[in-house]
Amino acid sequence: MERIANGVWRVRFGQPEQHTPVTLRETEIRTEQLNELKCTGTPPFSIDEVSLKETNRGVQIELPLAAEEHIYGFGLQLHRVDHTGRKKVIRVNSDPVADTGDSHAPVPFYVSTSGYGVYVDTLRYATFYCGTNLRKGDSEYKKYEQKTVGTSEMELYSRQASESNRTVVVDIPTAKGIDLYVFEGPDLATAVQRYNLFSGGGCLPPAWGLGMWYRTYSAAKREDVMRLANTFREERMPVDVFGFEPGWQTKAYSCSLVWDEERFPEHETMLGELYGMNYRVNLWEHLFLHPMSPIYSELKSHSGNYEVWEGLVPDLSIPEARSIFAEYHKKEFVDKGIAGFKLDECDSSDYVHSNWSFPDVAEFPSGMDGEQMHNQLGTLYQATIQGPFEKAGKRTLSQVRASGALASSFPFVLYSDLYNHKVFIRGVVNCGFSGLLWSPEVRQAESAEDLIRRIQTAVFSPMALLNCWRIPNPPWMQVDRDKNIRGEFMAGYDKTRDICRNLFELRMAFIPYLYTAYAKYAMEGRPPFRALVMDNPDDSYTYDIDDAYMMGESVLVAPIVTGSSERSVYFPKGTWRCFWTGAVYEGGQSYTFSPGLERIPVFVKDGTLLPLAKPQQYVADDAIFEVTLQQFGDEARECILYEDDGLTFGYRSGQYNWVKVSINSDGTIDAGRTGAYERRLYHIVGIK
Amino acid sequence: MERIANGVWRVRFGQPEQHTPVTLRETEIRTEQLNELKCTGTPPFSIDEVSLKETNRGVQIELPLAAEEHIYGFGLQLHRVDHTGRKKVIRVNSDPVADTGDSHAPVPFYVSTSGYGVYVDTLRYATFYCGTNLRKGDSEYKKYEQKTVGTSEMELYSRQASESNRTVVVDIPTAKGIDLYVFEGPDLATAVQRYNLFSGGGCLPPAWGLGMWYRTYSAAKREDVMRLANTFREERMPVDVFGFEPGWQTKAYSCSLVWDEERFPEHETMLGELYGMNYRVNLWEHLFLHPMSPIYSELKSHSGNYEVWEGLVPDLSIPEARSIFAEYHKKEFVDKGIAGFKLDECDSSDYVHSNWSFPDVAEFPSGMDGEQMHNQLGTLYQATIQGPFEKAGKRTLSQVRASGALASSFPFVLYSDLYNHKVFIRGVVNCGFSGLLWSPEVRQAESAEDLIRRIQTAVFSPMALLNCWRIPNPPWMQVDRDKNIRGEFMAGYDKTRDICRNLFELRMAFIPYLYTAYAKYAMEGRPPFRALVMDNPDDSYTYDIDDAYMMGESVLVAPIVTGSSERSVYFPKGTWRCFWTGAVYEGGQSYTFSPGLERIPVFVKDGTLLPLAKPQQYVADDAIFEVTLQQFGDEARECILYEDDGLTFGYRSGQYNWVKVSINSDGTIDAGRTGAYERRLYHIVGIK
């Protein structure tokens, strides 16, 4: 195995393909940060334990898998957390309805509880068989007990075989060679950090990106937008980002990327008014270009040979195409103050009522075929749109519907139309294994209760987003879509709105804590949202937990789904305290909680000094957070905050601080700063 | 294009793969019957309209698709009837949860309303893009109207493009060459017949196979089986076939293929008792062989390199493996009177809670890989099990969970665990496009109403099957599984049972009519169950109908699903009459029916003389059907019945008759026979 960086090893077999996430990457390996990670200097398994061969079908890999190992990752898996014993196909697909591996962001990377990671560098629809089958004859050497006769599929299909002698088999179609990367631990979490640093590190959103997001009705006109924008401020509903859906364009599906002056006359004036109210504006789009788009003709020769929805599919791996697309976005949007985009439909779709996208056999000018382009399109799109923001020296936090391997440094958050609350929670649990961020967005809901429960999850997630593109009025006024459109509101909706406001304010309070977690993601590759198993790979009780997760270093979130007034929460080792009441719970066991509708079960590690900001309506460019320190346990006397301007790339040249906040024995507070950033983002006001 | 048979053309490109349905076929093209079909002698499109090329990925085909064409087929598609505008992957998969092409019986064959069929001879997971995409630039030449802004996915995703310039793109991975077969019409139904005759013709079940089937509780013991068998006869519930589920074997999952003498002591005596009561016995199995199976050692060297459920996967394309497997079945089962098998799990599974089967990269002694073996396994298994019955000179009707291309001559009926009544009806509609038979089996139900509605569909389907493997007592006593197991029965279940009995008797009455429809399938390739579009390709109102179908030449079936007391029925051209009341309906329009719980909407073409048998409890070896003729309209004076011994392969050497039954002007009945079969299967008793 060839050493690529500290704790990163490569196995090369045959002649790898020209187009892979590594050959297409535009980010740098964070060598320096990798050097700071603990490392044995020995690969986690030897090359003799790996089988690699070329067949008619492509390349086949077989990797060791010990009896006690459990496997996680493979990108944004929405249907399962622990993939041991399962088959996973790494194929981009919108709204996957079953546990097949298909995902908005499939990644050919897995990590093991034994403390290592494996990345297969391919854009092919590779299949991973994670200990699904023994080799012929292995079963005869076991002892057999006759099972009771099964009378359900569950009983019949349960595995009887011992789990030794297993392997991970990887099937990579079409390829004639492959690069395999192995990431050392020593533990699962470190292997994930290593993969993220290899990918370029995590992204650092602007501070405002951590506030509340609201996407508005697709058919809204200028006056509807302004009415909503005014109402939020009047009703003191914190909102940072205002999102426009397809209706802002003259043509959508496919896209013209031109403002519709009928619905939005003098749209620049409107944008000025929104900016004046401290809203950031985000524009929906997809990249299938309508013939009437101003950049259609220029991009035609740089596009694939099939259309999607009457639109061109530009090959964004071609510098000319990239430049045309990016320059247009800079000039027309970024330079005019647009803060971000929602990059839709860049996944494919085999599962929805109307499947779409280009065929796998499509041909692109770069030489990529449709299969490869499908698995890379989301990443190419992110890199393209990131460009104008880099040039403008402004950070964005944006949305994207597809992503893939080595994408952790792009400040884009994934989303989906699946809209099942449990599935959405599982997305938060899983995204951190593969360098991804996920938004369990809220639309309307089946009831006010459902709305509140969903908002609670959103508020404790990578992006706190209400996507109200199907309803003209806020969902707290009416959850039923038809009634919402007719303007019939729920009786006593102000009570629901007040609960929502409290939750929005809770999000705003957590921004300093969250921003610090994101900084650790950017600089150390440590995911801000993590499955419980990630920090507890020795605790098998955590292996299957898909409904609770860590936010940052100290906060455990266990959302409740509508229809239940209580839930059970398992605590990993250590002592935990209720965020709301301070009550103490010992780790290694489960407790049942029924905190009422207004509260989501949230717990804090004993010994945590939690910095909470005074909620603002928005994070202005010159925002200062007034931080109160909340002590969880007597030992809670110190916390760290990340500080920079929250807006630019100055942090890359050292313009940031780590602020060490401590409570002295006399109760006074110290805030010691390390770093070169001069302004203050935090004002520590006291202890709660 | 090379002419292969009358109206069948082949295009060869490159070097086709060694293993395809055609190279593995064991049936003969029915050249003589093909010669009897109408035919222009010109392929439906020219070779210039077809593009074929080899790429890195495999072989790519592009075929013409006119604006007005609609496409059907692709095997047992359970989620859609009209595949125009859709992507379909030809990949065997158990219980497919979405409209992806995956199927228990995927077939790379489609037929067009323009009157032709296309078969791509491959075992690869080929993808068919049926007019999904235009080529780059085709949209710029259209006129655009700005759509209203969509506020739902349905609106946004709807196609705006004109549907001209379309093609069918076929992506065949791994292959270096391909054989493409084109089937002339002149119409859709004839193209289907041609495909079936090319495949070897349809199957001819034994007459008893058309009676009622009952599969019993998986955990049943000998005394439970006999109690049920006696009850059916005592209560005069017609049942022909008694099915044993996994519990008959000493080992299952995987399979030993050995009777369990604990649950079934002296099983041969038990079988003798069942035979004495005129039951046919069917045994469940799958082919993944447990190490304790008597044929394990012999088959080990003829098996794939991975196990499934601790079991060998024998390569049944190898003559030695085939012979060992088939001879064991002949000696142990067929020679001991077993009438058929249920061949389970020979599909794969990506969609169920516990995915299973061998990897696509598995290697088999024949040189087939796992992908090819997956798509052929069901057909190989059918051919293997058909062997002992051929040798014994006895026909079987059996069950199988997977099938594929060119399989129409195998007397095996497909089934699934999906258990959605609407989906199951769609299976009946679709199976006839691709040479397949499908059983919308009944298990328990959510209510007595649901049970009755499901049985109504089953009774008017290729196989009338109650699969009660999860409940020890008949479902008409208790539909709730847990209560059924506890022996708690529904109040007044005898009323439900009586309705069920009436339905079972209705099935028994239709056997002569159905048997004749199957004979047309065997000899002319005409499917016994057909979508309405098959006989009406010019009537666009039939294109999407997925909830009504033709049974035989004259009967239109429109099942009702629980929760509805009425439904709308569209009648194709012609005059139709209600089976129950004789009421007249004109074709070309829809009517609404609410026939009450005991009746399923069934209609008969005006002018039909319908032969209905006096219901028997079972079809004995020496059965004679007492047929009454029911007239639908004054012109109904003639019908045709197929006649043979109902049991052996004598019909292949001409031992069968076509019986032409006519009502003379004086009301007397003539029954003129053409053919060499001497015994009489029908006794015509009069006119109703």
TrEMBL record, chains A, B:
All copies of domain Glycosyl hydrolase family 31 C-terminal, residue ranges: 525-609
UniProtKB keywords: Glycosidase, Hydrolase
Domain Glycoside hydrolase family 31 N-terminal: 51-128
Alphabetized CDD domains for the sequence: GH31_N (cd14752), GH31_NET37 (cd06592)
GO molecular-function term, one example from the UniProt record: hydrolase activity
Domain spans labelled Glycoside hydrolase family 31 TIM barrel: 204-517
Gene3D superfamilies named in the record: Glycosidases, glycosyl hydrolase (family 31), Golgi alpha-mannosidase II
Signal peptide: none
Domain of life of the source: Bacteria
Domain DUF5110 positions: 628-684
Record keyword Hydrolase present: yes
Family, as annotated: Belongs to the glycosyl hydrolase 31 family.
Name of the molecule in the record: Glycoside hydrolase
